[in-house]
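Late entry, LLP complex.
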Amino acid sequence: MQKVYTKVTDQLDFFQGNDPTKLAAEYGTPLYVYNERILRQRCRDLKGLVTYPHFVVDYSAKANSNLAFLEIVKEEGLEVDAMSPGEIHMELLAGFAPKEIFYICNNVSEEEMRFAIEKGVITSVDSLSQLEQYGRLNPGGEVAVRFNPGVGAGHHEKVVTAGKKTKFAVDAEKVDDVKAILKKYNLKLIGINQHIGSLFMDGKAFTQSVASLLEIAKQFDDLQFIDMGGGFGIPYHKEDGEAPLDLEDLGKHLDETLKAFAKETGREITFRIEPGRYISAECSVILSQVHAVKENHGKKFVGCDVGFNVLQRPIMYDSYHGVEIFRASEEKSEKEETVSIVGNICESGDILAKDRTLPEIKEGDTLCVLDAGAYGHAMSSNYNCRLRPAEVLIRENGEVVLIRERDDFADLTRHQISLKK
Ligand code: LLP
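Prediction complete; structure with ligand written out below:
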């Protein structure tokens, strides 16, 4: 096997002695490959974020809800958030106790809310009308409310979830209305939470938002926890030397803030964060095979099997993912070229990596799409009746195990009802 362009996976020792061209041949492509050592390390990075003693990391399972993945996160001692009954179901299956699950819902039916209440999962509501609904369903119960701290952040406008332009959360000015509904249904507000958006690389907006949230917290006496949300970024431009988030600096600021709050209020509240991407992105790559190389009107296209049914982030948010190149043969790439790497979906927008300058890519090469573990498989689909990819895990000892089978044709028709009975 030849490493044509493999800087990042080499640095990380991602494959731990496994040959990606062989993995691609054995399991077929596209293939999601996870590295357990890196996943566990990311869990530990965040568990050690602050020295403040009452601190819980809830992994945000929407980023990646693979069962084996959740089992590892559980083993690392993290708790989880959930966004739907389906996520609650997966998390219970993975071994999380109901009290280790925090259901942060948005515009849900009575049926969904009741599901969480009946399972004993703490629920956060994010509007006055949903607080009313909660009160009707579970009078006298314990609940959390998601507030908008007024500051948002994120890599794209579609993922900014606080500030003035978002559907999420209750505005800070509505504290009195919240109190009135709590009183009406004899509810106990045991937690408040926020999530300002997804992917910040410096902690300024986050620390600012925490300060606002703490001001809101001072207005409620029964709080047991304050959840500061997720959004911790990872560097997607690693091969260009983009630096990681400075966790040490962020942790130091946060620690000071949390300890000052405890001192000022005399309350030893539990603080939580709920990162998805930081835990899951960097421990996964997608292996893909190049099936065609062509030139259209002077532009070179490399055609592979990672369409946007496999990885939606580039088409959805113009997201960047590094791409590496492995080759089974010894044939050399003599030059660099600027190419667009595209998938096999019938839309012109199906571009995985636009105008990249890389060593010449040849048919049959194995491409390796970096940082694919967050919102990768979780957002994949059967569009064009394509089969969702298999997932394998490189265990800490280097052994490779299958953790999800590729879809088969039966998955495409599983819930369909033919008229030809
Ligand atoms: N908490 C709540 C309430 C959230 O809505 C989210 C993400 C998180 C935590 C975790 O955020 P993270 O730490 O992963 O940034 N599909 C987009 C990201 C959408 C994020 C949705 N909410 C992407 O691929 O970039």
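Residues 128 and 228 are 20 Å apart (CA to CA). Will revisit in the morning.
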